[in-house]
Amino acid sequence: MTIVMDKDALNAFLARDFPQVAGSYRVEAVRATGLTARLITGDDHLRPGGTVSGPSMFALADLAIYCAILARIGPVGLAVTTNASIDFMRKPAAGVDLLAECRVLKLGRVLAVAEALIFSEGVADPVARCSMTYSIPPKSSDFRAV
User: What is the pTM of this model?
Assistant: First the structure.
């Protein structure tokens, strides 16, 4: 598959169009089949007990899958999540970033399906698994970043 946006282009897109997440999330690598994204964990991502919150892990998966799709179709700002499922499998390790290994399973004209495995950095077993479907708007209504 052809890569349209590399990690630098995706990170620039996030910084420009989603500044609220640019300081906490970063695309680390882009591959033909998917990408790796990082959650730079901080106190604002923790819940009582010192573990990373479920909403923070969900946001990482959503961002990773969104960026994996954009890496292939370009900066379509109106591509949106239409379905999501997440399984929390174990408590993330304390004091380390989380990494999402994302894979695009199907990229159609209207829908894209992808999955992400989330890992504590340096730990082999995943802490969560997420699958999502995204709706891709028709070309005539694309909101493309300039």
Answer: 0.91
Pair 106, 112: CB distance under 8 Å? yes
Looking only at the bridges linking them, the beta strands covering 111-120 and 126-135 are antiparallel
Residue type, 35: L
What tokens does 49 get? Answer: 């007990």
Average pLDDT, the chain: 92
Distance between CA 21 and CA 10 in Å, rounded?
A: 12
Q: Enter the CATH code of domain 7-141.
A: 3.10.129.10
Phi, psi torsion values for 34, nearest 5 degrees: 175, -150
Tokens, residue 33: 């089949």
Q: What are the domain boundaries of the chain?
A: 7-141
Tell how strand 46-47 and strand 51-52 pair up: antiparallel
User: How is residue 145 written in tokens?
Assistant: 């970043």
Q: Sheet of 80-88: strands edge to edge?
A: 25-30, 34-39, 98-107, 111-120, 126-135, 80-88
Instruction: Give percent above pLDDT 70 in the chain.
Output: 95
Q: How many helices (H) and strands (E) does the chain have?
A: 3, 8
Per-residue tokens: 13 = 């897109």
The predicted structure's pLDDT at residue 146: 39
Q: Residue 63: what are its φ and ψ, rounded to 5°?
A: -65, -45
